[in-house]
Amino acid sequence: MLKKLRDRVDSWVMLDETTGFVPLPKERILFTSPQRTTLAIQTPNSYPGKEPFAIHSSAGTAFLTNQRLVYLPAAPTTHLKSFSAPIMNLQDAHVHAPFFGANVWTGILQPVTGGGIPPHHAFVEIKMTFKEGGAFDFHSTYERIKESLSQAIELARESGQVTGHSGQMAGLDLSTVNLDQLPAYEDIGDSRPVPPVRVAQPIPSSTPAAGPPLMRDSGVLLPSDEDRDAKSSSDQSPSSDHAVVPTEPPPGYDEVQRSSVVDNLEESIRRSQ
User: Fold this and answer.
1) Cα–Cα distance between 98 and 201 in angstroms, integer?
2) Is the four-CA dihedral 73, 79, 82, 85 of positive or negative sign?
3) Of 67, 63, 103, 65, nearest to 82 (Cα)?
4) Which residues pair with 85 in a beta bridge?
5) Whole-number pLDDT of residue 225
C-alpha cells in the first residue's frame, strides 16, 4: 500500500533539463542550497495515522523562490522526482543545530490538493539536512519571504483582491511584493557629521549649601570643600587668633636680669659717693 502511495509522488514540479525546473509566472529564485542537502517527508511521529507516509532523498538541491520551496533530488527515483510546496503552506519552521552532525531545518506542511500526498494526511513534516552548510541562510531567507508575502496578502485582503484563506496567492500580484532587504546605510553627499552639542554646566556658587559629608565608594569620609579651604589658608598664613603665648622665660633670661640689677646697684653706689 505504501508503494502505491509513493508512486503518486513521481513528479511534483515541471522539470527542465537546462534550468532544473520550470519557474512559475513572476517567480524568482532567492536561495539555492548545496547539492548534498537531504530531504525527508513523513507524517509526524506524534500522529503517524493508520497509513504512515514517508519519502526520503539522500542528496539534492533545495531552492527558495518568492512563491515556493522546490527540491530536486540528485538521483531521482520512481518514488521522488521532485518536490514543491507553497511558502504560505509551511508553518512552525526552525533550525536544529546538534552538537555533532549537520544542521537540520524542520517545518510542518499543509499539503495542497492533488499534490501527490494522500488527502487524509492533513499535514506532514519536512526535514532538510544541510550537510554542506546553509541551513541558517535558508531559514532567514524563508522568514523574509514569508513575512513579505503575509503583509502583501493582508493588504490585498483589505483591498478586496484576496478573499478567504484558501488560495491565498490567487489574485495577488507578486511583482508588487518587495522581497529585497533594505540596503545598508551609507553617507551620501557632502554632508558632514554634526558634532555633539555641549550643554553648559552651571557654575557652583562660592558658598555651596551645606550637605552631608562626602564619602568614597569604600566608605572613607572625605573633608568638605570648606574644611579643605580653611586648612589651606591656615597652612599659608597662620592667624593671630591661633598664636600660642609662651608660659616660660626664654633661655638665659635670669642671667640677663641679674646682671642688669647688679649694674644698676653699682651705678647707684658711685653716685652716692
Assistant:
1) 56
2) negative
3) 63
4) 69
5) 55
Joined together, the cell numbers standing for residue 230 give 580653611
CB 43 within 8 A of CB 124: yes
- For every residue of 198-235, DSSP letters joined together read PPPPPPPPSSPPP-PPEE-TT--EE--HHHHHHHHHHH
Sign of CA dihedral 111, 116, 119, 123: negative
List, in sequence order, every residue forming a beta bridge with 269; answer none if it has no partner: none
In this predicted model, what pLDDT tens digit does every residue of 41-51 receive, in sequence order?
998 876 656 67
Q: Which residues contact 117 (CB under 8 A, 6 or more apart)?
A: 9, 41, 53, 111, 124
Nearest CA to 171 out of 197, 188, 153 is that of 153
pTM: 0.59
Identity at 96, one-letter amino acid code: H
Which has more pLDDT, 3 or 18?
18
By the 10 Å C-beta count (0-12 exposed, 13-18 middle, 19+ buried), 39 is classed as buried
Buried (b) or exposed (e) across 121-159, using 16+ Cβ within 10 A? bebbbbebbbbeebbeebbebbebbeebbeebbeebbee
Give the burial class of 237: count Cβ atoms within 10 A of its Cβ; 0-12 exposed, 13-18 middle, 19 or more buried.
exposed
Read off the pLDDT of residues 37-87 as tens digits, 9 standing for 90 and up: 999 999 887 665 667 889 999 999 999 999 999 999 999 988 888 999 999
Contacts of 74 (CB under 8 A, 6+ apart): 35, 36, 57, 59, 60, 61
